[in-house]
Every structure is written in C-alpha cells, then in structure tokens.
Amino acid sequence: MSRNGAVNRKTKETAIDLKLEIDGTGQSKIITGIPFFDHMLELFTRHGLFDLTLEAVGDLAVDAHHTVEDIGICLGSALSEALGSKKGINRYGDCLMPMDETLVETAIDISGRPGLFYEIDLPSEMIGNYDTSLTSEFLQAFVNNAGLTLHSRLIRGGSGHHIVEAVFKGFARALKEATRLDSRVTDVPSTKGMI
After folding, report:
1. In DSSP terms, which residues pair with 14 in a beta bridge?
2. Which string of DSSP letters, residue by residue, matches 140-174?
3. What is the CA radius of gyration of the chain?
4. pLDDT tens-digit map of 101-155
5. The domain that contains 66 carries what CATH number?
C-alpha cells in the first residue's frame, strides 16, 4: 500500500507543486528559491526517509515568508492525505537531536488536534535569504494542516544554523517514528476509535 499525497496550490503570492511519499528512501528534488530552506527540507526527507518532490515559486522579492508558510501548508496537507484513515500508525514519535553544541528535543502526536509548542529561543537571523524566525511559521502551517501536535524545545545551542538544522532533523526523526506502521495495530491507535 502506497502512502503518498500530492498538493498543487496557487495563490497571488505562491505557486506550489508538491508530492510526498511517507515510505520512501529519503530522496528529494526541491526547488524553492530559498537555498537554506531547500537544504533544511532535504535534511527533513533524508532523516525521515520520506521522498519529496517540490517546486515552489513565490514572491521572494517581498520576502520568503509567504513561500515558507505556504510550503508548510502544502506539506502538512500532503501528509494528512498520505496517512488517510491513520489505521496502523504508531501515532507518537520523539527525538533528542544533537548538532554539535546544539541539542533539541522533539515530540509528535498525530492526534487530529493541531498544536505547536515551540520553545526555541532563536533571534531573527538571516542565513542567505532565509530568516530563521520563519522556522516556527513553517511548523505552525504544517501542524495546522497535518492535524498533529508538535513540541520542539531547545535544550542548548549557540549557532542559529545549528539550531534550525537540529529542529528540522529532530522533526523528521520524530515524524518518521509517528507515521511508522505497526503490524500489531489493526485499527486507529485511539480508544475513541478515530483520530
């Protein structure tokens, strides 16, 4: 059974074509016009073992905000589509991710209840044309459209680059665990009978 989702979204600010395969091998083809963000999404696919094809054109002459947020919307929607009924999934995932001097803790619940609890003390810093404060905007858009709860907490860190990288890697590893199929779970992993 293939678990994939595809989203084509066009607004006055962005045009996005995205395809996600949950049970992939970490392959990606990503073009957003924001090189550092491309790198973060490549890390996400590699460490989550997701396959992702993404082409985004946005109003980068204004700034990267619309593009980053809309990609979060599309990726979250594609994940929700790929998970379908959510039968057999692990549901929960967590990760303690080191990146040199940085340590980030991540926990996910595919609960159907969107929530972002982002405790990353990260000053706004430009890495190329990527404003690091957009990381929380991306994650908020993702959880709203995927219907999951995400906790991301900085335990220690110095470099903005390392912190954002640890956030994306930890997010990927926790999501890989939460979306993993467990052969012992034959229904939705909830006493309610639905997520």
Report:
1. 58
2. HHHHHHHT-EEEEEEEE---HHHHHHHHHHHHHHH
3. 16
4. 999 999 999 999 999 999 999 877 899 899 999 999 999 999 999 999 999 999 9
5. 3.30.230.40
- Measured at the CA of 26, the angle between CA 43 and CA 86, to 5 degrees, comes to 100
Range of the domain at 175: 4-179
Q: Tell me the pTM.
A: 0.95
Structure tokens at 13: 């600010």
Q: In whole angstroms, give the CA distance from residue 106 to residue 94.
A: 5
DSSP-derived 3-state class of residue 44? helix
Q: How many of the other CB atoms lie within 10 Å of CB of 129?
A: 14
* Number of structural domains in the chain: 1
d(CA 17, CA 77): 12
Q: Which of 107, 85, 109, 84 is nearest to 96 (CA)?
A: 107
